[in-house]
Amino acid sequence: MRILVIGGTLFMGRAIVARLIARGHDVSVLHRRDTHDLGPKVRNLKADRRDLPTVTRLVSQGRFDAVFDLAYDWQHGTTADEVEAVARSCGDKLARYVFMSSMAAYIPGLNRRETDALAPDDDANAYAQHKASAERRLMRMHAATGFPVTTFRPPFVHGPHQPFYREQFFWDRLLAGRPIILPDGGSTAMPWAFVEDVADWCVRALDVPEAAGQAFNVGHVEPTTQRSFVETLARVAGTDARLVAVPRARIHAAGGRIIGGNLYFGEFLDLPGFSMIVEKAPRVLGVTPTPIDTALQRGYEWYRTQPKRPADYSFEDRLLASAS
Q1: What is the pairing mode between strands 66-69 and 2-6?
Q2: What's the distance, CA 105 to chain centroid?
Q3: Ramachandran quadrant class, 112 (left: phi over 0; alpha: psi -120 to 50; beta: rest)
Q4: Which residue in 62, 88, 119, 267 has a CA-CA distance of 20 to 30 Å to 125?
Q5: DSSP strands (E only) in the chain
């Protein structure tokens, strides 16, 4: 198949491209740079996702059999209008349009299923709004014309080439023998998906006719809280976790943030409790999630090959001192 991956040079995109190449597909990636490091078999298309005239021209001219739409502009957002414009430029040869949505597309809560309501078009969280609104547009296209869309809703994703400071945040501290701060004791639900599983399931959608017009929750089936996730990371690294509960209100009052300076629990990880039921994807797509310990071991092996980040523990030390 002739396949385009929009945003194929990072994390989930890299894993998907590798699988497509291994299966012998003719693969192109569309991103902002002149070159990529994905190998000579992968064609390079340069465009900014927000430059709709250029993006839609490249997609239309490519006459692709399948498109994987993974790119999200974290600075400006990627709106439903931008996603729909690309989808409508695909032409009548398209066999599958795989759109990477997110757990965030749901209204926050526990045990979300694919049939549950998504965030409204005016949701205050721009990321949730964009993902939910884009899914609705694509599914309306499917209902009206049979547009062959499949959407995936992963929670937090871990694994090799992680672009956010997430698993690495905890392994840096665990291996340094430092305590880990648990907001309110770490009982908040925090589900995860393995990047290699997400890639496998996305590629599998090419082969399953029933995937058209469907949304899928994807991720590990083991229930995970903030505390249990850190304990698993420690077990994988062969060390003990020293966990210190600090009231979330005290963390916020001291200036704690989920991104940028004063980070205390990895990037974007201290969010309201969220969980999903992962049952439909294994049943319809015939895939099985990797056990979380096995998956994290692969990520840990990659982590150990990476340069160590500079660390400033001063904010955490102030919090820990207040907890003693």
Answers
A1: parallel
A2: 12
A3: beta
A4: 88
A5: 2-6, 26-31, 43-46, 66-69, 96-100, 149-153, 156-158, 180-183, 192-194, 214-217, 243-246
Quote the CA–CA distance of 293 and 278 in Å, as a whole number.
18
Flag residues of the chain having pLDDT under 50.
none
Structure tokens at 264: 């205390």
112 secondary structure, DSSP code = B
Residues 6+ apart with CB under 8 A from 29: 4, 5, 6, 7, 8, 9, 13, 17, 36, 38, 42, 43, 44, 45
pLDDT at 8: 83
CB 97 within 8 A of CB 90: yes
pTM: 0.95
- For 165, counting Cβ atoms within 10 Å of its Cβ (0-12 exposed, 13-18 middle, 19+ buried), the class is middle
